[in-house]
Write a structure and sequence with these properties.
175 residues; alpha+beta; SH3 type barrels; 2 domains; three-stranded antiparallel β-sheet; 22% helix; 26% strand; elongated; YjdM_C; PhnA protein
Protein backbone atom coordinates (compact mmCIF):
# COMPACT_ATOMS: atom_id res chain seq x y z
CA UNK A 1 0.00 0.00 0.00
CA UNK A 2 1.18 3.51 -0.79
CA UNK A 3 2.33 5.91 1.92
CA UNK A 4 -0.17 8.24 3.61
CA UNK A 5 1.17 11.46 2.04
CA UNK A 6 0.85 10.03 -1.47
CA UNK A 7 -2.65 8.69 -0.72
CA UNK A 8 -3.68 12.12 0.57
CA UNK A 9 -2.23 13.95 -2.44
CA UNK A 10 -3.98 11.57 -4.84
CA UNK A 11 -7.26 11.68 -2.96
CA UNK A 12 -7.13 7.91 -2.52
CA UNK A 13 -7.52 7.18 -6.24
CA UNK A 14 -5.32 6.34 -9.23
CA UNK A 15 -3.69 9.53 -10.49
CA UNK A 16 -4.29 8.44 -14.11
CA UNK A 17 -7.80 6.97 -14.21
CA UNK A 18 -9.38 7.63 -10.82
CA UNK A 19 -9.82 3.95 -9.86
CA UNK A 20 -9.82 3.24 -6.13
CA UNK A 21 -8.78 -0.44 -6.16
CA UNK A 22 -5.34 -2.10 -6.16
CA UNK A 23 -3.42 1.16 -5.67
CA UNK A 24 0.36 1.24 -5.33
CA UNK A 25 3.11 3.81 -5.48
CA UNK A 26 5.22 3.84 -8.64
CA UNK A 27 8.57 5.61 -8.63
CA UNK A 28 8.92 8.15 -11.45
CA UNK A 29 12.55 9.29 -11.25
CA UNK A 30 13.56 12.01 -10.78
CA UNK A 31 10.11 13.46 -9.98
CA UNK A 32 9.02 11.15 -7.19
CA UNK A 33 6.12 8.75 -6.84
CA UNK A 34 2.68 8.52 -8.42
CA UNK A 35 -0.26 6.47 -7.19
CA UNK A 36 -1.54 4.07 -9.86
CA UNK A 37 -4.02 1.20 -10.08
CA UNK A 38 -3.02 -2.25 -11.39
CA UNK A 39 -4.21 -1.43 -14.93
CA UNK A 40 -2.25 1.83 -15.10
CA UNK A 41 0.82 -0.01 -13.75
CA UNK A 42 0.43 -2.44 -16.70
CA UNK A 43 -0.19 -5.32 -14.29
CA UNK A 44 -3.69 -6.00 -15.64
CA UNK A 45 -5.28 -5.92 -19.08
CA UNK A 46 -6.49 -2.42 -20.01
CA UNK A 47 -10.04 -2.33 -21.38
CA UNK A 48 -10.63 -0.64 -24.73
CA UNK A 49 -10.31 3.12 -24.45
CA UNK A 50 -8.80 2.99 -20.95
CA UNK A 51 -5.76 5.08 -21.80
CA UNK A 52 -7.94 8.03 -22.84
CA UNK A 53 -7.87 8.84 -19.11
CA UNK A 54 -4.39 10.25 -19.73
CA UNK A 55 -5.90 13.22 -21.56
CA UNK A 56 -7.37 14.44 -18.27
CA UNK A 57 -4.42 13.36 -16.13
CA UNK A 58 -2.12 15.42 -18.38
CA UNK A 59 -3.54 18.55 -16.72
CA UNK A 60 -2.36 17.55 -13.25
CA UNK A 61 -0.37 20.20 -11.43
CA UNK A 62 1.78 17.52 -9.80
CA UNK A 63 5.19 17.22 -11.54
CA UNK A 64 5.49 13.47 -10.97
CA UNK A 65 2.07 12.88 -12.54
CA UNK A 66 2.89 15.12 -15.51
CA UNK A 67 6.09 13.19 -16.14
CA UNK A 68 4.36 9.81 -15.74
CA UNK A 69 1.60 10.82 -18.18
CA UNK A 70 4.14 12.18 -20.69
CA UNK A 71 6.13 8.93 -20.55
CA UNK A 72 3.05 6.70 -20.86
CA UNK A 73 1.67 8.70 -23.80
CA UNK A 74 5.02 8.15 -25.51
CA UNK A 75 4.45 4.38 -25.44
CA UNK A 76 1.05 4.57 -27.15
CA UNK A 77 0.84 4.59 -30.94
CA UNK A 78 -2.67 6.04 -31.33
CA UNK A 79 -2.97 9.45 -33.00
CA UNK A 80 -4.85 10.93 -30.05
CA UNK A 81 -1.97 9.93 -27.71
CA UNK A 82 0.66 11.54 -29.92
CA UNK A 83 -1.42 14.73 -30.14
CA UNK A 84 -2.08 14.75 -26.39
CA UNK A 85 1.63 14.36 -25.63
CA UNK A 86 2.60 17.08 -28.10
CA UNK A 87 -0.02 19.38 -26.58
CA UNK A 88 1.01 18.91 -22.95
CA UNK A 89 1.93 22.13 -21.17
CA UNK A 90 4.79 20.91 -18.99
CA UNK A 91 6.43 23.05 -16.36
CA UNK A 92 10.08 23.91 -17.19
CA UNK A 93 11.32 21.41 -14.60
CA UNK A 94 9.16 18.58 -15.97
CA UNK A 95 10.15 19.47 -19.54
CA UNK A 96 13.82 19.11 -18.53
CA UNK A 97 13.09 15.71 -17.03
CA UNK A 98 11.07 14.64 -20.08
CA UNK A 99 13.84 15.64 -22.43
CA UNK A 100 16.54 13.90 -20.42
CA UNK A 101 18.87 12.04 -22.73
CA UNK A 102 19.17 9.00 -20.53
CA UNK A 103 16.58 6.26 -20.21
CA UNK A 104 17.33 3.67 -17.56
CA UNK A 105 20.89 5.00 -17.24
CA UNK A 106 21.67 4.27 -20.90
CA UNK A 107 22.72 7.06 -23.26
CA UNK A 108 21.61 6.90 -26.87
CA UNK A 109 23.91 8.59 -29.41
CA UNK A 110 23.51 9.11 -33.14
CA UNK A 111 26.11 8.24 -35.79
CA UNK A 112 28.00 11.46 -34.97
CA UNK A 113 28.04 10.84 -31.22
CA UNK A 114 25.32 13.43 -30.48
CA UNK A 115 23.10 12.55 -27.52
CA UNK A 116 19.52 11.63 -28.44
CA UNK A 117 16.45 12.26 -26.28
CA UNK A 118 12.95 10.86 -26.45
CA UNK A 119 10.91 13.04 -28.80
CA UNK A 120 13.87 14.13 -30.95
CA UNK A 121 13.71 14.09 -34.74
CA UNK A 122 16.38 12.12 -36.58
CA UNK A 123 17.25 11.62 -40.25
CA UNK A 124 18.27 8.29 -41.79
CA UNK A 125 21.81 8.38 -43.20
CA UNK A 126 21.43 5.28 -45.39
CA UNK A 127 18.70 3.20 -47.03
CA UNK A 128 17.36 0.60 -44.58
CA UNK A 129 15.47 -2.52 -45.59
CA UNK A 130 12.64 -2.90 -43.07
CA UNK A 131 12.23 -6.58 -42.33
CA UNK A 132 8.65 -7.82 -42.25
CA UNK A 133 7.20 -4.55 -43.56
CA UNK A 134 8.10 -4.99 -47.24
CA UNK A 135 9.62 -1.55 -47.84
CA UNK A 136 12.92 0.28 -47.75
CA UNK A 137 13.28 3.38 -45.59
CA UNK A 138 15.21 5.77 -47.80
CA UNK A 139 18.24 7.83 -46.83
CA UNK A 140 17.20 11.34 -45.82
CA UNK A 141 13.86 10.21 -44.37
CA UNK A 142 12.94 12.24 -41.31
CA UNK A 143 11.78 10.28 -38.26
CA UNK A 144 10.01 12.59 -35.78
CA UNK A 145 9.27 11.92 -32.10
CA UNK A 146 11.60 8.99 -31.58
CA UNK A 147 11.39 6.75 -28.53
CA UNK A 148 14.49 5.41 -26.83
CA UNK A 149 14.79 1.66 -26.22
CA UNK A 150 15.37 1.52 -22.48
CA UNK A 151 17.64 -1.52 -22.39
CA UNK A 152 19.64 -1.01 -25.60
CA UNK A 153 21.67 2.13 -26.33
CA UNK A 154 22.06 1.08 -29.98
CA UNK A 155 18.32 1.13 -30.73
CA UNK A 156 15.56 3.71 -31.04
CA UNK A 157 11.98 3.41 -32.22
CA UNK A 158 10.24 5.63 -34.71
CA UNK A 159 7.48 5.78 -37.28
CA UNK A 160 8.44 5.49 -40.97
CA UNK A 161 5.79 5.21 -43.69
CA UNK A 162 3.15 4.64 -41.02
CA UNK A 163 5.03 1.70 -39.49
CA UNK A 164 6.59 1.75 -36.03
CA UNK A 165 10.08 0.31 -36.46
CA UNK A 166 13.28 -0.21 -34.48
CA UNK A 167 16.25 1.67 -35.94
CA UNK A 168 19.91 1.28 -35.06
CA UNK A 169 21.38 4.57 -33.82
CA UNK A 170 24.41 4.11 -36.08
CA UNK A 171 22.14 4.79 -39.08
CA UNK A 172 20.66 8.12 -37.91
CA UNK A 173 21.75 11.67 -37.24
CA UNK A 174 19.95 14.14 -35.05
CA UNK A 175 18.22 16.93 -36.90
Amino acid sequence: MANDDLMTRAGGVCEFCGAAEALAAVDMPPAGEVLLCAICRDEAEAPAGHWRCLEGAAWSGEPAVQLAVWRKLGTLEETWAIEARDGMDLSPQVRDWAEAVSVGGIEHRDSNGVLLAAGDTVVLIKDLVVKGANFTAKRGTSVPRIALVADNAAQIEGRVEGQRIVILTEFVKKR
